[in-house]
Amino acid sequence: MRLRWASWTCVRQAGLVVWLLLAPWAAFSAEPRVVASIKPIHALVAGVMQGVGAPRLLAPGGASPHDYSLRPSDARAIAEADVVFWVGPELEGFLVKPLDNAKDKVRSVALLDAPEVTVWPLRQGGAWETHDHGHAADDHDHAHDRQAGRDPHLWLDPVNAAAMVRRIVAVLSEIDPLHRADYQHNGAMLIERLDRLNQQLAAGLASIQTRPYIVFHDAYQYFERRYGLDAVGSIVLHPEQRPSARRVAEIQDRIGTLGVRCVFSEPQFQPALIATVIGDSGARQGVLDPLGAELSAGPDAYFLLLSTLSDALRNCLGGS
Ligand SMILES: [Zn+2]
What we know:
Layout: H1 2-28, E1 34-36, H2 39-49, E2 56-57, H3 72-79, E3 83-86, H4 96-101, E4 107-110, H5 143-146, H6 158-175, H7 180-205, E5 213-217, H8 221-227, E6 231-236, H9 245-258, E7 262-265, H10 273-278, E8 284-287, H11 301-317
Parallel strand pairs: 1-2, 1-3, 3-4, 5-6, 5-7, 7-8
Bound molecules: zinc ion.
């Protein structure tokens, strides 16, 4: 009896020692420092981290990731991060160098490389190709051209978003195993919600599948393939380009011959030339936003982004 009591005391003391060792660590173990590049990716990461912490968003507001340049505070946040989630060099060219410089300390997760995501090549030819592609005198970082031609706008397909959520859960669980259960639970909820969104969008867009339209820059391939929409061209291939007069004439021609119903601009670029392109063809004008410039950042931003996109297409293309 005496012996058992002694050993129990021993166990209790050992437990106390373990507790004393762990407690300060537990008390000071902050949330992981997580950075996300653009609002839709930030929304998915924020959804996975709910109840644990919040990721930092790099390119806020309506900044276009195609030609964004990093602020000093962004550069600091990257250098101090545990992990940075981004799409890949095809989209956020501004992240290539800072992530490379920090590669010993900061984990870089390019979601274009995530297992299970579907990646399409950039559309070429016909109405998807600009014909004034001479960049010889143009030495700025042209991300689209430099890479192997993957279309980086992969987040505009909720099935891809679910695959990205699985990747985000796996990476965060490795970095911060203490909160693995939270990440897995949040991820499962998010994937269910994405599945419902996908079904709603498919049902809502079915009636406009045969209505041809033209977009400002070629950002919507993932959305269009998922829902079988009839996009017949973009005004520019790269958002930072200005179309040539010949290009504008080709698009005008296309509007006439294909009976294009709508021409969509984007809030990031506000091109005055949409009106010129439309001319007196009778096509309507709408606005599509691939990034959610007006949406407040957070877990809901992804869902609002896709339903806003769907509403804009239906409002412009629907009816008789
Ligand atoms: Zn784009």
